[in-house]
Amino acid sequence: MEDSRISHRYALALYQLAGEMNQLDRVFADMEIVAETCLDSKELLRVLSSPLIRESKKNSILSEIFAKSISDLSQRFITLVVTQNREVSLPAIALEYVKLVKDFKGIKTAYLTSAQPLDEETRNKILVRLKEQTGGEVELIEKIDPELLGGFTLSMEGQLIDASVKNTLHQLRNEFTNNSYISEL
Question: Which of 81, 108, 95 is nearest to 8 (CA)?
């Protein structure tokens, strides 16, 4: 709980500063890079959480990793986070910043899992339908799960639509198992 409050506080401060400097979108892209890089690298997470590695070394490592891919404002913010001994929270701060910007812009995130990759036409139909229902912009994050056998599952804002073959088969199995009809032959 403490970590989420810290993450929110730092992300909010960055959000306000980026807004004042008209760099919301640039820093948004930077924080997506930071979050993805940190979460994809167990070694980097170990470095950030290690009490044996000095602040200056952590700053130089992060600077070397991100120097060519993020803005000066984002780089200075990362340095501040490390200086304040909050580097363990860096991925959470970056994700919280991304969430703040998405909330500000009214962008909703939908998670679609399908048995096979969707073709462009189907993806566009789903996006159009979601945009109509939400009245705003929708970001679609796709995942492939062959265990669904066919169809898809879609979740957005706590709602789940399960139109998978696996779910249909499961429901049929339950109906046959719990069938209260007894033949009188």
Answer: 95
Determine contact, residues 143/113, Cβ cutoff 8 Å. Answer: yes
Classify the phi-psi angles of 173: left when phi > 0, otherwise alpha if psi is within -120 to 50, otherwise beta.
Answer: alpha
CATH number of the domain within which 14 lies: 1.10.520.20
Q: Which residues contact 102 (CB under 8 A, 6 or more apart)?
A: 108, 109, 139
- H-helix or E-strand containing 123? helix 120-134
- Strand 159-164 relative to strand 108-114: parallel, antiparallel, unpaired? unpaired
DSSP 18-32: HHHTT-HHHHHHHHH
Residues 81 and 125 grouped into a single domain: no
CATH code for position 155: 3.40.30
Residue with tokens 């919280």: 96
Q: Are 73 and 27 in contact (CB under 8 A)?
A: yes
What is the residue type of 49? S
Q: Going residue by residue through the chain (185 aa), what tens digit of pLDDT does each one get?
A: 457 899 999 999 999 999 999 999 999 999 999 999 999 999 999 999 999 999 999 999 999 999 889 999 999 999 999 999 999 999 999 999 999 999 898 888 889 888 888 889 988 888 888 888 888 888 888 888 888 788 788 888 888 877 777 777 778 787 777 766 655 54
